[in-house]
Amino acid sequence: MDVGVLTVPFGDEPLDETLDYLAGIGVDAVELGVGGYPGDDHLPPENYLDDEDAQANLHALLDEHGLRVSALATHNNPLYPDEERATAADAELRDAIRLADQLDVGTVTCFSGLPAGSPAGDVPNWITAPWPPEHAEALEYQWDLAIDYWTDLAEFADDHGVDVAIEMHPNMLVHEPTGMLKLREATNDRIGANFDPSHLYWQGIDITEAIRALGEVDAIHHVHAKDTKVYEERAKTKGVLDTTSYADVEDRSWLFRSVGYGHGEEHWKDVVSTLRIVGYDGALSIEHEDALTSSREGLEKGVDVLDRAVFETQPGDAFWAE
To answer: The whole model's pTM is what?
Structure first.
């Protein structure tokens, strides 16, 4: 299992310098943004698609630093009710899949997207309760749209031999494991999770049970290492559906934290062990969004925790059971 990093916080630095720094702190893999909210500072698709020389130079640079690419990231909303925005997000996602195929990167990370609640809507609508009944009807409409879109996208991904790893995220249709399993069952095995526990903690979801549920059908294609701290004093009065700005750290009921600052090292060792139980042996890609620390310090502390949690060797025979 590799310790990786989503390189977005270093978008204003050259890729070479970023890779040099990350390799120096013990990182094994990088997740590179190619569009959408992550941007494409380190890997603009138009500079690499169908360009064998550019792709060879990228591989050489990665080899020089002893790093591999765990995934290409393009988080956006291909189900957006505005056709122009949805078409642009879909094009980004398909370009990411094509580029992943050409670079021999097996995974693209993304969001499920979220439609409006009806054909007349012009803003995405996140349904969090089934009543009054028009909300249940809106949710059914959204799932119909999503299954149509993702069935086609899944076939496109399969044609290119690339897994699509959807991050379960608030304000997206797929925001928890049962929705992830529903979408996978309706499409194909190329559709799975970019398992990011940070969005599940505040929903009250048990992380290791979620890993087991998804892992039972081999539906974890990639993992984000990202922590969350729920501040019970705030949550007791305002709940966890908190619309307070992420910048107002004192007033939020929960915050994204660096690995180890929301849950201790023992918890992360349990996460790693459960991932091994279900057969996941890919990257733990650190996504830094901790407002209480700098990117470099947060990453370095997270790498330190994960270094002690991950296994570097394969398990041997259970000789004690013979």
So the answer is: 0.97
